[in-house]
């Protein structure tokens, strides 16, 4: 630690002030004297009042009449005083304006927060390294001379205060925790979808003015767009149906499907009680029977309504699932109070299938093509899965479809030698509301290595804990190689956790004391948080924290789609898609007319 300075420090401070004053005088005197000499010569030449003077700027400033004796006092005043002074003032104003513009530009870009990552600290996410990584991950790019930026990774933003683009690679898996209106859709979901090189899966609880309308036309130019809208968020015409029982011909597959209905109906903390587990087991057994006999999923609701129906028992026995049939029989023939409670629980979980409008999306429809996940993952198509918050069984179908796509992608990657090329991008927006895949935290451990890139977007950390429990959310957080935290973090515990993860840095502290013997100054170093919790809570909109595995935390400036080239065209396309939604909604609510043209 530096020792306190001697009492002579006050003399040193005086010398410093005198030196700075001297520099200021020189900074003004040198240009002023040169301008005086130049102005005097220009005046002599313009008035034809004698020869020009030799280069003597000091003499021109102090005694101009000695250099130009033939000039009258007025000419000398104008040429060697007023004109140089005006030029000097103009130069000063220009310099001040340029400095202010530079300062304003710097503040507009926001200076880098002390202690946060510099470009060299996150070099693996910058252009050169991410391009080299893309070549090694994607065989289709190995021999390409030039690679487009969107083929190398997903743009997250720029390092704050710089033009360095930061991208996550096509082996990363991400969690984004961003409050509403903090840029999660405009700066993350939409740009990622628009630049995706392969198939795209999006889950959302909104349509008009959101990722759905903003990307629909653009993705339609790349491949086919599929929209599953059982609750009519976008009032989409039913142009597809999907069979949720296609993957339920094994006990594991049927159990996964039942698990989606369970997760959509109760929180993680309630999924372990007797009634929840028993209701989920009954659903899985009936789903298995329906899948084995290639029946529509709606038949399960008929069996739930009549527990005494022996059809599912016979199907399970005929296909060799005698143990499962015995379990089902034990429940059916058990105490009536217990049996009725279990069946009622299962009926509540699957109640959305009673709605014919919802059921139509998951049962065969004449003239409507079937959506097949195995074909989708090898295409450049886009799948939009829309559901309302708290959609219950409807959101279970959304989660089941998303899960089916990711499992189909995993199987295809294994057939390809380990990875999908091009990769599948899965934007799970509002995942805690409309896409509650119960084992998603476990899937995060291997999806990236398969070329399946999930970005799970949550409004808060606690929202994830509610769906997957403390252990599940911690597992997803730990498995995510990319973590993006936007503005609006109001959870003090999570903000403090982030502050501790970002770490401390050394701060220089200067203290001055005065006594009878003079003034002494001491300098010490102390550690303080790079970003305290209150600073994280106050993150400005348009900025985000980036925590990447093995790298220092970085502050990003987000890149919303509407500030990028081509935004006008995308805005127009989004407006057209939103207008189409409005038109369809009005058409549905308009009163029907009879054959005579009168309202029915």
Automatic annotation (TrEMBL):
Gene3D superfamilies: P-loop containing nucleotide triphosphate hydrolases
SUPFAM superfamilies on file: P-loop containing nucleoside triphosphate hydrolases
Intracellular or extracellular location(s): Cell membrane
Keyword Metal-binding carried by entry: no
Transmembrane spans: 21-40, 78-99
InterPro entries reported in the protein's UniProt record: P-loop_NTPase (IPR027417), T4SS-coupling_protein (IPR051539), TraG-D_C (IPR032689)
Keyword Transmembrane set for record: yes
Bilayer topology term: Multi-pass membrane protein
Swiss-Prot/TrEMBL keywords: Cell membrane, Membrane, Transmembrane, Transmembrane helix
Domain (TraD/TraG TraM recognition site): residue spans on this chain: 423-540
Superkingdom, taxonomy of origin: Bacteria
PANTHER family, alphabetized: CONJUGATIVE TRANSFER: DNA TRANSPORT
Protein name per its UniProtKB record: TraM recognition domain-containing protein
